[in-house]
Design goal:
- This protein is an alpha+beta fold and about 425 residues long.
- Helix content is about 40%, strand content about 20%.
- It is built from 15 helices and 16 strands.
- The strands form 3 sheets. It has an 8-stranded mixed beta sheet, with helices on both faces. A 5-stranded mixed beta sheet has the order 13-12-14-15-16, with helices on both faces.
- The longest helix has 17 residues.
- Bound molecules: adenosine-5'-triphosphate and magnesium ion.
- Adenosine-5'-triphosphate (ATP) binds next to strand 6, strand 10, strand 11 and helix 11.
- Adenosine-5'-triphosphate binds next to strand 6, strand 10, strand 11 and helix 11.
Length: about 425
């Protein structure tokens, strides 16, 4: 039978040797979101298609062109989630989380599926870390989630990622703005792409988000939303900027940011870098005060952001940021003979109980081959157990880099003594 060895276009594998990179960034994201009071939420990878049609918005690229939608055997239309917000909002409504007090603060890690043209930084299966906050219209919340995203990027050591913010107002200011946009773009009707033409009537703001270079150029001269904000939205935007300044977060105002979802209101923001090519947005977010109502709930102003994990790793690579590899084997015990094998087995249990990564031969190799393997996996220390060591109940652990050897008793204190050795080493070499 032919081997099936090709992954689906636009998907990527994370291999055992690379997973520490993902875990490193995910741990920082978990820690930072906890510090800001967000608790993790997990929702299904697929939902009723209707949820995304309403939650992401009918006129968006995502819904119009990019969703993986299929009918189940039971005849239901389901869709692989293209983003994390709609599922989170659905869960908030389904479990009436508002009864537990507002605001509801949730974070998530999700895989997302979009049928896009695969290229650097643009995949068909990709991963996001995000947060959601439901039940607050205060500008403090907007500033707080932006600060959280900034803290994550700072702790990851990223540089040259700048924050762009905008306010796209509420439905009232947008009605006037949309009219101005319609008038502006109508003059360029002949030059617009087909998709934009169809959006001109229904949702002209989408034209500002078009990826076609010609349309993008036309959009540059379009009226700016910031000139159409009502008093309330203007004040809200001013407060968000005030709190960001208070927290020492730098930003630039970019009146062309509209974001890809239909239900964004007021604040929208992106963290952008130019070090990974055209797909330079690493984080996007904002407010969606109308979303919960759109899904059939009561008025519950909400906001959130999502960070693309693949893009973050690309930036870290591009900037040469070293990710500490904590997945290394600290001790490899090589054995000769059955007694040694058994001793190794009991010692390993002790060492592993202390949370230290340790291994022994599980293949049946000879001593030389075992040592070669220890070298190959990059073990920090090795120890050879044979009849002599068993008889004396002592053995030498060898630092594989410096060659230095330390003798340890093979008793109940072994793991503890080895841990002390390792700790001194970590201090010296910053493993
Ligand atoms: P873009 O303008 O790059 O298409 P978007 O507005 O569609 O982004 P969001 O829906 O806001 O993106 O998703 C948040 C983040 O998820 C993006 O800022 C990006 O880092 C990441 N992301 C979005 N689409 C992809 C994709 N196809 N492949 C990899 N990462 C992605
Ligand atoms: Mg997109």
């Amino acid at each position: 039978m032919a081997l099936i060895t090709r992954k689906i276009k636009g998907t990527e594998d994370v291999l055992p040797k690379q997973s520490y990179r993902w875990q490193f960034i995910e741990n920082i994201m978990r820690e930072e979101s906890r510090a800001y009071g967000f608790k993790e939420m997990r929702t299904p990878v697929f939902e009723h298609t209707e949820l995304f049609a309403r939650g992401v918005g009918q006129t968006t690229d995502v819904v119009q062109k990019e969703m993986y939608t299929f009918d189940t055997k039971g005849g239901e239309s389901v869709t692989l989630r293209p983003e994390g917000t709609a599922g989170a909002a659905r869960a908030v409504l389904e479990h009436s989380l508002d009864n537990e007090g507002l605001p509801i603060k949730a974070s998530y890690f999700v895989s997302c599926y979009r049928y896009e043209k695969p290229q650097a930084g643009r995949l068909r299966e990709f991963h996001q870390f995000g947060v959601e906050e439901y039940g607050t219209q205060s500008p403090v919340a907007d500033a707080e989630i932006i600060c959280l995203a900034q803290s994550v990027l700072d702790r990851l050591g990223l540089s040259g990622v700048h924050l762009e913010i905008n306010s796209i107002g509420c439905p009232e200011c947008r009605a006037k703005y949309n009219q101005a946009l319609r008038e502006y773009f109508t003059e360029y009707k002949e030059q617009l792409c087909q998709t934009c033409l169809s959006r001109l009537e229904k949702n002209p703001m989408r034209l500002l988000d078009c990826k076609s270079p010609e349309d993008h150029k036309i959009a540059e001269g379009a009226p700016k939303i910031t000139d159409y904000l009502c008093e309330e939205c203007e004040t809200h935007f001013g407060e968000v900027r005030k709190y960001l300044t208070c927290a020492g977060v730098d930003f630039v105002i970019n009146p062309t940011i509209v974001r890809g979802l239909d239900y964004y209101t007021k604040t929208v923001f992106e963290f952008v870098t130019d070090c990974i090519g055209a797909q330079g947005t690493v984080c996007g977010g904002g407010r969606y005060d109308g979303l919960i109502e759109e899904l059939g709930g009561k008025h519950m102003p909400s906001l959130g952001f999502a960070i693309g994990l693949e893009r973050i790793l690309m930036v870290m690579d591009a900037q040469g940021i070293e990710i500490p590899n904590t997945d290394v084997c600290a001790l490899y015990i090589a054995t000769m003979g059955d007694d040694a094998k058994q001793k190794a087995f009991s010692l390993l249990r002790q060492v592993r109980e202390c949370g230290t990564a340790a291994e022994t031969d599980s293949v049946g190799r000879g001593l030389r081959a075992q040592m070669k393997y220890a070298d190959k996996i990059g073990a920090k220390y090795s120890m050879v157990l044979g009849d002599n060591e068993i008889a004396e109940n002592r053995a030498k652990v060898k630092n594989m880099e410096s060659g230095e050897q330390t003798e340890l008793a093979l008793d109940d204190s072994f793991a503890e003594k080895f841990a002390v050795l390792l700790l001194a080493d970590e201090k010296a070499f910053k493993i």
